[in-house]
Design a protein that fits this description.
This protein is mainly alpha-helical and 428 residues long. The protein has helices at residues 2-43, 49-55, 66-89, 91-110, 115-143, 146-160, 162-178, 182-201, 216-227, 230-260, 267-292, 294-318, 323-349, 356-380, 387-409. It has a single domain, classed as Up-down Bundle (Growth Hormone, Chain: A), CATH 1.20.1250.
Length: 428
């Protein structure tokens, strides 16, 4: 009997770590898949904007950018609602509500015959897709803390970013095979797969005793607490500013590549290559964050982002940089954004463990509102040159670095606690 017990103990000791590794792999891929619905909703659509504008009889060229902007507008509204809903009824049921709305928006857009109807569908899509974005952040925050949370988020984002790398090519293939409307049918299928996967494999991470009742008073109290917590507010502003430059790029990417640089069908290739630079940054961050800490990496990334934009802006202002020069500028910029955005989210949520859903909602909604406003301005200022985009990266990266400096002046590191995965750790 003793020998049998010893054998069982040895078998368990070897099996449990492998089971944990397998669980973590699937968990990260599932979180990435659900988050990727956001990227699919944007990037697979980009190659269709030109033909869509023609079919929907859009008169002003820059107006078709609203197909991207309205999705973000819906996300902005949705995120502030899903946070408290997720804290009240649980993560999984909130996910199902959002995906149902996303599918409804996809159906409306599928059958749209005018730009206003298309924009309505995209608004509802954004309202729905905000749910998986908020729920995945809250689930990760439920399970991990500190640098471990930043590590997991970086891995999730590293897997997720493969989607923007291939989505334009996938969208291009769908458009040429079945027409641009088939993209919305693809969205319906992708959403159904994600729902089924989460239903079977994702466990509810918010226990009943930790749930907070849904009420306007609760929402206001939580928003007020998040907005007056220096760390949460500061890094929410940083995320909004830096992502504003990214939205400016997304709004005008199709025009920049196809009209300014005359890339034609190679648009998807160039767009995908730049997306890979963000993926490389997320994987790099996951490898470095536990050793160097979130703050050191984020500060270094913002300094490099400012330097890169400072060098590029004069070239854009006084002439038209070559496609190669633009690709180098964009690759470095996106690498810096990839290094910093996940860390900003983790640092913003770190003091908010007692209300992760509502805090995620505040951060997501506020940062999206900022980035949507700034990114839309940058996109609408597109005039056939790179001046607006380069100026956006230049000014917004400087502002983000200054706000980080302000945020960190009020930071008091928590004491180091060594131990198992998920322990709170000091991050200098």
């Amino acid at each position: 009997m003793l020998q049998l017990l010893l054998c069982m103990e040895r078998a368990t000791a070897t099996a449990l770590p492998q089971l944990y590794v397998d669980f973590m792999k699937e968990f990260i891929v599932l979180m990435a898949y659900l988050t990727a619905l956001v990227a699919l909703s944007i990037d697979a659509m980009l190659p269709a904007l030109g033909v869509m504008a023609s079919d929907l009889h859009v008169e002003r060229t820059n107006s078709i950018q609203l197909v991207v902007a309205l999705l973000f507008a819906g996300m902005m509204v949705g995120q502030i609602l899903y946070g408290p809903i997720a804290d009240a009824i649980g993560r999984k049921r909130t996910l199902y509500i959002g995906i149902a709305l996303f599918m409804l928006g996809s159906l409306i857009s599928w059958h749209a015959t005018s730009l206003p109807v298309m924009l309505l569908g995209r608004l509802i899509q954004g309202l729905g897709v905000a749910s998986p974005r908020i729920v995945t952040m809250a689930v990760v925050r439920d399970k991990f803390h500190g640098r471990d949370m930043a590590y997991v988020m970086s891995m999730v984002m590293g897997v997720f970013i493969m989607v923007p790398a291939i989505a334009p090519t996938l969208g291009f293939a769908i458009i040429h095979s079945f027409g641009w409307r088939a993209i919305f049918l693809f969205y319906l299928i992708a959403a159904a797969v994600g729902t089924l996967w989460a239903m079977i494999r994702l466990k509810e991470t918010l226990t009943p005793e930790r749930r907070r009742p849904f009420s306007l008073k609760t929402i206001w109290s939580g928003v007020k607490e998040a907005a007056t917590t220096r760390m949460t507010l500061g890094y929410t502003l940083c995320a909004g500013l830096t992502f504003g430059a990214m939205i400016g790029y997304l709004n005008s990417a199709q025009q920049i590549f196809e009209d300014l640089f005359q890339t034609g069908d190679r648009f998807a290739l160039y767009f995908g290559l730049l997306a890979l630079s963000i993926g490389a940054a997320f994987f790099s961050n996951s490898a470095l964050v536990r050793r160097l800490g979130m703050r050191r990496i984020t500060r270094a990334a913002l300094i490099l982002l400012v330097s890169n934009a400072t060098l590029f802006f004069p070239y854009a202002y006084f002439g038209t940089p070559s496609l190669l020069f633009f690709m180098l500028f964009a690759a470095v910029s996106f690498f810096c954004l990839g290094l910093s955005i996940g860390n900003m989210g983790a640092m913003a949520l770190e003091p908010m463990g007692h209300m992760a859903g509502l805090a995620s909602a505040f951060m997501g909604s506020a940062s999206t509102a900022i980035s949507l406003l700034l990114g839309t301005i940058i996109g609408q200022l597109y005039d056939g040159t790179l001046v607006a985009l380069a100026g956006g990266f230049f000014s917004l990266s400087i502002a983000a670095l200054l706000i980080m400096q302000w945020t960190e002046r009020g930071h008091r590191p928590a004491p180091i606690q060594h131990g198992q995965l998920g322990a709170l750790t000091e991050d200098r």
